[in-house]
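REQUEST ID: PR-0412
SUBMITTED BY: lab tech R.K.
PRIORITY: routine
TASK: structure prediction, single protein chain
INPUT:
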Amino acid sequence: MGPLHGTKVIEIVGIGPGPFAGMMLADMGAEVVAVRRPGPALIGLPVDINRRGKLELELDLKSEEGRAKLLEHLATADALIEGNRPGVMERLGLGPEDCWKLNPRLVYGRMTGWGQDGPLAQAAGHDLNYAALAGAIYPMGNHGEPPPVPLNLVADYGGGALFLVVGVLAAILEARQSGQGQVVDASMVEGASLMMSLFHSLRASGLWMDRRGTNMLDGGAHFYGCYQTSDDQFVSLGAIEPQFMQTFLERTGLDPAWMERHMDPSAWAELEGEVKALFASKTRAEWETLLEGTDACFAPVLPFWDAPNHPHNQARGSFVELEGLVQPGPAPRFSRTPSEARSARPLDDPGES
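STATUS: complete
OUTPUT:
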């Protein structure tokens, strides 16, 4: 009985961030009907967490019968989400105008890399390409080296899925007042670009140097980065504000005079060398004992498969076990109508998920 209980969403199953967006809506209580094409998936996973909580339906949308069945569900839906190239749904006779004839209140959520129009709209691409065009990858990494590959979190999930969810929910709220649906055009390039707002502000304020690896948040500062420990593990330090660096100095016994050079970029390289040597002198566990839970802004760098075992994550129940698989739990949390991770099931299964 999450906050979206009573909301119905049709997901045209694709790859990447679309199913993730559908999972978030399902976690929050929406009835999400995931419509899959017949046959094996283009990119199928034997274990796919993004399926959880959904009602699954296999339809051939190229057939009259498949289209008719989908339209039957759309007649009572609040939203449809899809991630096909622009024009695909229209060619199937399932574009926004087709659906609004049946259900004028339907919100039509569309997520693509480049957006619904523009010179690149029909070109193939992936997260890395979209984040690159957004300017979100260029500042990452070290000077003289290619920018790193930031998994597929920046555009697919941050700039894509999360913006699609926000846009669809906003449009559903508006439709309940106006009685009219609309298209939500979620472009991963534009979502990733918007997430760069802080960095546009820093550069406009004269607080960002164009040479990567020399700025406060790109690894150029000694107080904001990851360091290797004596047992070949890693820890993170984020002591940006002076009071937090002061705590770090007091806990580690470093020279208090560091505070005079804390925000002096010309001193960062030298101080980074000292921090590197410091962290290399103890094991990760020893650093956790000394710094974790203090205002030094410290955390161990955990492999994602070890994150469920951390005491903080365990205390909050941040991970759940579903069908024998430990996985990230729903987020964010709601005090009165909590989200729930549930198993996927066929639409025609009368049992509870």
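NOTES: The chain has a mean pLDDT of 95.
REVIEWED BY: pending
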